[in-house]
Amino acid sequence: MARPAAARKGILNNHVGYGFISPAALAMIILIIYPMLYGFYISFFNTNLVNKWKFVGFKYYLQAFSEPDFYQSILRTFIFMLFVVAGHFFLGFLLSSLLNKKFFGRSFFRVIFTLPWLFPESVIALLFTWIMNPMYGVLNAILKSVGIISSNIGWLGDGKRAFPAVIFVCIWKGYPLVMTMLLSGMQSISADLYEAAELDGASKWQQFLHVTIPGLRPVINTTLILDSVWWFKQYTLVYTMTGGGPGKATDLISLSIYGTAFNDFRFGKAAAWGIIVFIICYLISKIYRGVLKDE
Amino acid sequence: MSKSRKAALLSILRYVILIGLGSMVVMPILWMVSTAFKGEAQTYSPKPVWIPDPISLDSFKKFFGIYNFGRMTINSFVTCVGAMIICVAFSCLASYGVTRFRFKGRKTFMNFLLMTQMFPSVMLVVPFYAVLTKLHLTNSLFGLTIVYAATNIAFSTWMMTSYFDTIPIDLDEAARIDGATHFQAFWKVILPLTIPGIAAVAIYVLLNGWNEYMYSSVLINKDAYKTLTVGIVALNSQNQVHWNDMMAASSFSCLPLIILFLFGQKYFIAGMTGGAVKS
Asked: Is A184 among the domain residues?
């Protein structure tokens, strides 16, 4: 919103602003920056945080790239993120386009499709563990009754099926955020633009490509960055469903880091991996921004 | 094909897709609720039972009885309300500062807020654990409240800033001319206008706090301070998993958020999407 220059003049270069941001800024410095720097510090030590503090320098950073546990886990997390985010945007676009029109039952469907957002990740993980239970799971029962499978399948206990199963659940949990963002974006596009396009003889699909998508660009940018980064860091859902297994089939990087810290008590190594993940997340956002801006 | 027939077909297609996808959302939830009301026998019946017969309330009785989830519900409630108060207060102040004043470091501050979203929470777990252990704040609801507040302040401020942006700065000017201090202008004139934004931030923090699992599971190991999500997940690691009890606890834990959302839906969605839609 453009403000009149005269009104703006009185507030320029005013240091009172520092007073207002100081509580939040201080809280962030003490509670985010300091722990982060502390994490950076312990990443140079071989430590259990109690009685072992051995300085190792950059060892864990250098080691990470030759350690299969690490780079395979990173690769797995990238594939996981790609599928999950693609799923979110596919469903998000489909549902927001459908819900953007006026029709009978629209508010009802909006609430229904928002529900997964409100459920705790841990609860969703347990619910789907129960649904996919090899002995008593309702999924097997349904699939058997329509003849798709003939005997019970252990969805989460099988190295090949666990990964797609986990992706499915993560799409189920996360699409409402993308849908809601896109829907709000669509509602902020002026109806005049569509009327003008219609007068010019544009088909619905052309309108979508040339009016909706450009109008949504800022929303898509922000949502894509946040969604990718958030799901790259995913922990709770996957940990609760599979604990990273079977074997290492669903061992995402957050789970590896957690295990390194709290099962192996190698806090220095875990902290170093955490820093690398931060750098990766930062690069993801930078790359997206670069690519999306150029278009 | 005539235009009206095409419209009718499109409309049918819309309902088919919505009902198809909608049932993918609703069926798991119904299964959770249905399991919650089952006795042991029907929970493990080979043929799925959708409507329990008889309807059993045993699992819900156990919720407050042997599982002691009442205590954990209170713990969850206290921590997320505490975090909410801190986040609302700090983010309102910061947003006012950022939208009303131009000062050095303002842009850096805003960029920093977004950058904190890149920090893997799992990476903060180790330092949080180390720092809170040193301060004797593990196994403490106060410690957990601080962690929840810290992890939510950035996005709260980001949401709040987009709301403050919509309030004309002329109002501050008028208050200032009438002799109000900066803080009075903020407190008496502007803040009351941002109630919808505050509602959005409040719901956002409550949602995240109530649903949080990882920090809570690491920072708390005494039963008296455990939160609900951790308590429910712990049922999964017992020797014999009672799925009906677990689903009862799960259903119960979802209720407050659904109610909260139904009441604050409009504000919450406007607040969540405000920053992205306008920028």
From this structure: yes
The answer to whether the Cβ–Cβ distance between A7 and B124 falls below 8 Å is: no
Q: Find the DSSP H helices in B101-185.
A: 106-115, 121-134, 141-165, 170-177, 182-184
| Residues 71-110 (B) with a CB less than 8 A from some CB of A | 86, 89-91, 93-94, 96-98, 100-103, 106, 109
Q: What is the pTM of this model?
A: 0.86
**Do the domain assignments include residue A99?**
yes
CA distance A16 to A209: 46
Structure confidence by residue, pLDDT tens digits, B231-253 = 888 887 766 778 888 888 888 88
Provide ipTM, 2 decimals. 0.85
- Facing residue for B127 by CB, picked from A36, A91, A127: A36
Write the residue in B17, B116, B129 that is nearest to A32 by C-beta.
B116
Tell me, yes or no, whether A42 lies in a domain.
Answer: no
List chain A residues with CB under 8 Å of B118.
Answer: 229, 278, 281-282, 285
For residue A273, the domain's CATH number is: 1.10.3720.10
* CATH 1.10.10.10 for the B62-278 domain, yes or no: no
Q: What is the DSSP string of A13-39?
A: T-THHHHHHHHHHHHHIIIIIHHHHHH
